[in-house]
Amino acid sequence: MNITKISFLVIVSLLLSCSTDKENTIITIKNSLEFARTFETVELTKSDLNLENLTNVGIRNMESKKLEITQIIDSNNDGDFDVILFQPKIKANAVAKYEVVLISEAEKTKSQEFCYSRFVPERTDDYAWENNRVAFRTFGPTAQKMIEDGVKGGTLTSGMDAWLKRVEYPIINKWYAKADKEKGAYHKDTGEGLDNFHVGVSRGVGGIAVKTDSNYAVSKNFTAWKTITNGPIRTSFILDYENWDANGKEIKERKHISLDYGQNLSRHIVEITGTDKVSIGLTLHKNDGEVTTNKAEAWMSYWEPFDDSELGQGVVLNDKTGLVAFDNYVTDKKDQSNLYVQSDVSEKIEYYAGFGWKKSGQFQSKEEWNNYLSRFSTCLDNPLEVKVKIPLK
């Protein structure tokens, strides 16, 4: 989980002792909830750690003495890797300590690049992303122009498509390579999952819209992309969109999307101007599923029968105070029936959107899926408490 509310307290130690605390920077993480926390990403900047370079930095669990899997990222694309990520495992109502150490290349923990995204020019111009649990894609300007020019094979939508994987290892490159040899190969499940999720002009899994009277206005395909990072813990990228019209209002939109290891929900930070309210949608497909909304916890879900299995979709708002209303919007217009949550927005909105496929073995019922969304929301409200203690130099 991308926890953006993590609080940092940097303490300069003035104790001239011979303890480990004096020798190394110590990270103390507290979980105040009644359940264990895993797959929540802690972000530490160079400034937090009082370091000039993160290249050879390791984070060691002080109890197990094992190095954590880490990933360093260039958060603002200035060529400087300025943030280190790791995912601590903290028991219920517990505290865990980690120490910052310098390590050699040989000591670095090797881990597969589970969190991966890329532009896919060989399939028109998709942008696809995945982790060890889920995969997604959305569509670019060439696919849009093909539709507008009447060329077969195009796609016109800013909705978010779901790829239903049921293996932990990466499948994006493998599935596209298979499709190069056999048209539509990834629409068949040969044991890894498949693409049988229809997005059309719907919002798919977490696309946005602006409500105008009783209708919803949406953008077209993304026009530009930029990959920020791939690695064992996070993939992150930016999508830009051409300005679009919402009943006479010009809407400007940019999406910063990331997906962390172990999570079913992608984080969406949408920079948007031209409106003070935004709606986030989940496609209702055949409208034969079950809708659940929770205003107190600011999440919604749609659990539906799905071919020979079942599928849950969900959205969790980061800022619960901004929630305005839910709208189970059903229309006869093709692919335009969506479950929406509307939120206030002031130039930016942050939310999480994703899915759980029963056939993957991750969730077996609507109740399990809804419990996942509820717990996710609880964790957002109760971030891990992170303190950094830097020794006196």
TrEMBL record:
Domain of life (superkingdom): Bacteria
InterPro entries attached to this UniProt entry: DUF4861 (IPR032342)
Protein name, as recorded: DUF4861 family protein
